[in-house]
Amino acid sequence: MHCHTPSEPNLPSNQGSIALVGHPNVGKSVIFQKLTGQHVAIANYPGTTVELARGAARGLPETVVVDTPGVITFPPQSEDERVTARVLLYEPLRAILQVGDAKNLRRTLLLTVQLAEMGLPLVLALNMMDEAETRGVVVNQTLLAEYLSIPVIPTTATRGRGVEELYMALQAGCAPQFRLVYPPEIEAAIARSCARLIEAGLLRTPVASRALALLWLCGDPVTEAWLKEQLVGEPFRELQALRADLQLSFVEPLPVVIQQARLGYVEQLASAVVVTSGHGWRGSGERLGRLTTHPVWGLLILAAVLYGLYWFVGVFGAGTLVGLLEENLFSRLINPWVGTWVNRLVPFPFLTDLLVGEYGLWTMGMTYALALILPIVATFFMAFGVLEDSGYLPRLAALSNRLFQFLGLNGKAVLPMVLGLGCVTMATLTTRVLESKRERLLVTLLLALAVPCSAQLGVVMGLLAGISLGATLIWGGVVFLVLLAIGWLAARLMPGERTQLLVELPPLRWPVLSNVVVKTLARVEWYLKEVVPLFLLGTALMFLLDKTGLLAGVIRVGEPLVTGWLGLPPEASAAFLIGFLRRDFGATGLFVMESQGLLNSLQVVVAMVTITLFIPCIASVMMIAKERSWGTALGMVALITPLAFVVGGLLNRALLLIGWGG
Amino acid sequence: MNAQGLLTCSLCGHRFAAAGHAACKSCPLQMGCEVVCCPACGYQTVDPRKSLFGRLAQTLFNASRPRRGAHRRGRPGRAGGGLEIHASRPCRGAHRSGRLGLTLADVPPGWQAKIGRFLEGIPPEKRVQLLSYGLVPNLWVCVVQHSPVTVVRLDNTELALEMELAGEIQVLSIREGLEDENSQ
Known about the structure:
The complex is a heterodimer of chains A (about 650) and B (about 180). By secondary structure, chain A is of the alpha/beta class. Helix content of chain A is about 65%, strand content about 5%. Chain A has two domains: about 1-275, P-loop containing nucleotide triphosphate hydrolases (Rossmann fold); about 300-500 and about 510-660, no CATH class. Chain A has helices at about 30-35, 80-90, 105-115, 130-135, 140-150, 165-170, 185-200, 210-215, 220-230, 235-250, 255-275, 285-290, 295-345, 350-355, 360-390, 390-400, 400-405, 415-420, 425-430, 435-450, 455-465, 470-495, 515-545, 550-565, 570-580, 585-595, 600-610, 620-625, 630-660; strands at about 15-20, 55, 65, 95-100, 120-125, 135-140, 150-155, 275, 500-505. A six-stranded mixed β-sheet of chain A has the order 2-3-1-4-5-7, sandwiched between helices. Chain A has a two-stranded antiparallel ribbon with strand order 6-8. The longest helix of chain A has about 50 residues, at about 295-345. Chain A is elongated and about 80 Å long. Chain A starts with 16 loop residues before the first strand and ends with a helix. Chain B has two domains: about 5-65, no CATH class; about 85-175, SH3 type barrels (Roll), CATH 2.30.30.90. Chain B is built from five helices and ten strands, in the order E-E-H-E-E-H-E-H-E-H-E-E-E-H-E.
């Protein structure tokens, strides 16, 4: 083994938080949950955590645990991985807790070596021991701990096994005495880089200066940014020259050379500590997993999954549950009761109208949010939770790769796109899992344009299912065509190369009911916090416009567009107006109009296509601005809003021409 | 049909080359014919290279049943294991990419491949990513499928990668069977 005891000059301090670091989908968020008692969105697919989650460790006083996005290796490749790299350099850390997959030890150890080099106290949690045992993988963790000079704790986080031992190891944590020897040219460059850092006055570094030098030599953008902040002028240029000189000594790029040296060590280490390496994969899960990525069976399974989703959300959620809540509970019981009491207790007609009038905060805002949208959103999040936990989504990435190739993307884009069916705002954040800026921008555009969120999808499905299957197919077909056309065009106009798909396929697992239920409730809570204030704001706006007579003005101004071009009744202007706040709110307004008999089949289809292609909601625009820039966000609004009306109007004319549903 | 282009007669079990079968040339029905006659017994077998439906049906049935020999055969590479072919001859991918030698994209599904070096078409960051996933030279991986993407199994992980990317990874040798076996 190329490893001996180091004598590091720059050991970091023992104050600060504990960072949970590891590959995607190895159970970091479950361990975070066990250590802190807090819930973060967990799923059986990479990219669930794209932002940092923080929580106080239950067993460690005054210690904060930070859950980081999964990272394959350093230097980071995607934006979410960069978040993790930033934690290591910018966060005052007391220790690192690496969560590794016990059944994939080589891969786990490759990251362990990099983390051990950082010189911070390190604990390795070998997680998913149950799956490793099932597959016959046995690891000698005592020997592994000895070689790496770090505590190695076997865990099965989903069942809470090994969590107590983790607390103890973290409490006792001390810096690993580990050093890997690289080829002589690289060792010389590391020594010279460390000397430059000391000469430049950088005596204390967030991670060991040797690790910092290695990250720099590998071209890590986060380290580069950090060094730029710390060093000015000559020292930084010297480091750049040093790296460029070193590259001349090797044919392969430096990150590859350095990684190969680590791989050589990891190979020896794994051979020494893996007692048995498993007996392969067998069983129905493996066979079903293979069928899900098959070119023919995979599509049939996808069709079955989509049908199941349609039935659960569209028929059960938007039909049965909404019927029960809206017609039976709210319209017959709650709203008349609230109306009676408000009229009795509030003496001012203006206030009474504001609360329970036509545009009342209760009768419109709360009823829309709780009776119409909540059941749809809850059923969608539940169905989505099952899909996430089963491990189906990465397989969908493989299956849909060709479609996304057409859109200048790769199959990984399916993860934010499907999550967008839950909530576009959440999905915009998840575009961080994509590797290039170009891909993130393309997917953000498609999400904002043509991916309806669950709330809207439920309303649309509920409305169209009541007309005919043909109506649903026209709506779906037009939205899909717009998505393909705009995606194809944007991919050709936007400069840059498409990145090729490389994704891990986690094993298919049975979703854990408690996890799905907890996650659904957490998302519903998040949703209510976001949606109820916006619904109330929208209702108050409508109320004020109505009272001041401006609503009639808006309807009159919008008439040429809404009635003349889209062929809808003038009142639909109000729905489009509140669609700017949330498009599901706008769709719900159209839903109510249809139930009052104001819209025929053709008008419903045109209205639904137009509102689906609208900007999702104010929150999503803010998220686009936060993730990209205000310029991008406003540019997208300026592109999407007229496009939605153009497509809606063209569809109106096309359907009138063929005489459909008029 | 196996990787060497051999068909097995479903009546008598005789293995024969589908390409250039002498009897076909003299057959009056050869125009548009999608079957081939067994030279031993004359029984007609569908030629999956010519018949689209035949190919489709074969793909369907191949996916729904376990790979033959995957569990029955002993650990490949040991005594009694599968046939090992060293990848020094030109191949399908070689013609496509203008290079010599097999790449991962050329390995038939159900076969194992020993990883060689990464070719120039892979950008450095993708190389590091591949290495970090454990796809390293001299490792035996099992190729599960090529469509819609190439899926390989290594250690206890499955990786999905685009065919074009797989076409940039050279393999040193291949052998039949999906049994997990690495050079450890």
